[in-house]
Write a structure and sequence with these properties.
Radius of gyration: 23 Å
Strand content: 15-25%
Bound molecules: flavin-adenine dinucleotide
Shape: globular
Oligomer: single chain
Distance between the termini: 31 Å
């Protein structure tokens, strides 16, 4: 019976394993840690629910809701409180609500008249067609202006990538923005005229996609998938070498002495820096060591509980994004208990803040007490916090999110080349197909389809990933 090895029990690996197993293909998921879920980490304690990794899952593709239904987790799905739609951006050192409707942009005090005029002017600017790859900063300044970069995009980039807009590639990190310019000549025109085409493709823009979680946090999803996979998951098993043979692949690890297993195909669903270290022994040499250059800056997540009366701000929304120019240490904060019920005991609220990233990498690894003080001080100024937290927990991600910086295409080309040279090896997940949780789920679904077709035909299907 043909079987598939899946390296990594994050959401990508578990999704792929779940769908392969449902199609009658035996799988083994190898995970170096003693738990499933990768960066997803939910903690229930003292009546609080802390989410250290991702907080919400965006339904950008019909495949997301389908996975939840297929995994039998529909009854545990939690949609956010519709009253918690407000998003804040910090300006003049205080959170200002972002306009909910496009016309609100012209009356908000978040932006000056100059930035508003830049938006009106954008549809009349010629598109850039020379194929040069730009950073998101260069792209935004060229199409809008510096203020738009400093007070909007910089904060957004910190919220998604914990990244540096001067380094992130618009082509690789924000491909849909670049496509608006390429296809419509302008981002504003693309937003206005592209809506019908996006609907036809079943594609939902990230800013409009419904978001959700589960009654006990996002960990419910990997745990639910793992339950269905049962003893197909091998925890505490680091895979260090894979060898291509006439029959398929031998995966070898250092968990148990002389550990080896034979499979017909291998999906690598781990991280880029571990993939760079994986020894790949195949007749046609494959070199993925340059992937070690991909930056994954450190991030610390700090979850605080406060008594409701100890926080002046209503915290009535999703959260606040903070641009670098405002001079705060935290990258932003999510108003976790406004979004979903049961995140805090009655009369209390939960706030999740992020520290580090490319902006201040050195702060992420501060000892917990220093980290708590730094976050408390920013929350005091921004949200009017006036007492010590009643709950505090932090998680440190030494290598959190891959930076799709200018030049990332080189790494993607190496990954495609590896799949061509070593048939039966598949690469999937956040380091290749987009950094969000929803991108990772779609990547897991797509790689399962590609492996199914490989098992039938023996050919590696390199079709572009469909969302
Ligand atoms: C702090 C933080 C906040 C985030 N917030 C959001 C958010 O709000 N919304 C959102 O959409 N996304 C968010 N993301 C991004 C999203 O969570 C991730 O992109 C996604 O979960 C990645 O899933 P994955 O399975 O591809 O990788 P991972 O979760 O990294 O899983 C990979 C797994 O592979 C294992 N592994 C690696 N190499 C080997 C090996 N050689 N042998 C065995 N096992 C191996 C690792 O131990 C790990 O468990 C956030 C990420 C972080 C870090």
């Amino acid at each position: 019976m043909k079987s598939v090895a899946i390296i990594g029990a994050g959401i990508t690996g578990l999704t792929a394993a779940f769908y392969l197993k449902r199609n009658g293909i035996p799988v083994t998921v190898y995970e170096v840690r003693d738990r499933v879920g990768g960066v997803i980490q939910s903690l229930r304690k003292d009546g609080y629910l802390a989410e250290f990794g991702p907080n919400t899952l965006l339904e950008t593709s019909p495949k997301i809701a389908q996975l939840v239904r297929d995994a039998g987790l529909q009854s545990r799905r939690l949609d956010p409180d519709p009253k918690a739609e407000a998003r804040y951006v910090v300006r003049y050192r205080k959170p200002i609500e972002m306009p909910a409707k496009p016309l609100g942009f012209f009356t908000t005090n978040l932006f000056s008249l100059g930035a508003k005029l830049a938006v009106i002017r954008e549809p009349f600017l010629a598109p850039r067609r020379d194929g040069a790859e730009e950073s998101i900063a260069q792209f935004v300044v060229r199409r809008f202006n510096q203020e738009f970069l400093d007070h909007a995009i910089d904060a957004l980039v910190a919220g998604i990538y914990a990244g540096d807009p001067q380094k992130l590639s618009v082509t690789h990190a924000f491909p849909k923005l670049k496509a608006l310019e390429d296809n419509y000549g302008s981002m504003i025109k693309g937003q206005l005229f592209g809506a019908r085409e996006r609907k036809k493709r079943g594609e939902i823009a990230k800013d409009r996609a419904p978001k959700f979680s589960f009654d006990e946090g996002l960990q419910v999803l990997p745990d639910g998938l793992a339950e269905q996979l049962g003893d197909s998951i091998s925890l505490n098993t680091a895979i260090s070498k894979i060898t291509q043979t006439n029959e398929g692949w031998i995966v070898a690890g250092n968990a148990r002495e002389n550990f080896e297993a034979e499979h017909n195909a291998v999906i690598y669903a781990g991280t880029a820096f571990k993939l760079a270290q994986l020894v790949i022994d195949s007749p046609k040499p494959v070199n993925l060591t340059p992937l070690s250059e991909i930056r994954y800056p450190p991030v610390a997540s700090v979850v605080f509980g406060f008594r409701r009366e100890d926080v002046a701000h209503a915290c009535d929304g999703f959260g606040m994004l903070i641009p670098r120019v405002e001079g705060f240490k935290i990258l932003g904060a999510i108003f976790s208990s406004s979004l979903f019920p049961n995140r805090a005991p009655a009369g209390h609220i939960t706030l999740t803040s992020y520290v580090g990233g490319e902006r201040y990498p050195e702060l992420a690894s501060l000892p917990p007490e220093k980290l708590y003080d730094l976050v408390c001080e920013d929350l005091r100024v921004l949200l009017g916090v006036k007492a010590k937290p009643t709950f505090q927990h932090a998680a440190f991600y030494p290598r959190a999110i891959p930076q799709y910086n200018v030049g990332y295409g080189r790494y993607r080309a190496l990954m495609t080349e590896a799949e061509i040279k070593a048939p039966g090896l598949f690469l999937a997940g956040h380091y290749r197909d987009g950094v969000s949780l929803s991108d990772s789920i779609v990547s897991g679904c797509n790689v399962a389809d590609r492996v199914k077709s490989f098992m039938r035909t023996g050919a590696t299907n390199l079709e572009p990933i469909s969302k």
